[in-house]
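Sequence in, structure out. Go.
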Amino acid sequence: MKLKSSYQLEQIAGQPVLLPQGRAVIDGGMVYRLNETGAWVLEALRTEPDEATLLQMAAARFLPENAEEQATLDAQIRAFCDTLRALQLLED
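Output:
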């Protein structure tokens, strides 16, 4: 799974944003403001992990000593990826 090449993660005034590139700009691509976790997910997608690997990476990053919150984190990451898919921003 990876971010489509028509979008690029950037920082504007310290805020992570997802910006359309190339043809996506002409086609009216939207700019998406992200929180730090969303930006981390998009950075992690550069390695093109499958969903299970992405969830493991997130757990290692955000829950190194709190496995009880794993299910909540997994659900949040999956929901974010589902939103990216619905917006047609991911390639599986």
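Check: The radius of gyration is 14 Å. The first strand starts at residue 2 and ends at 3.
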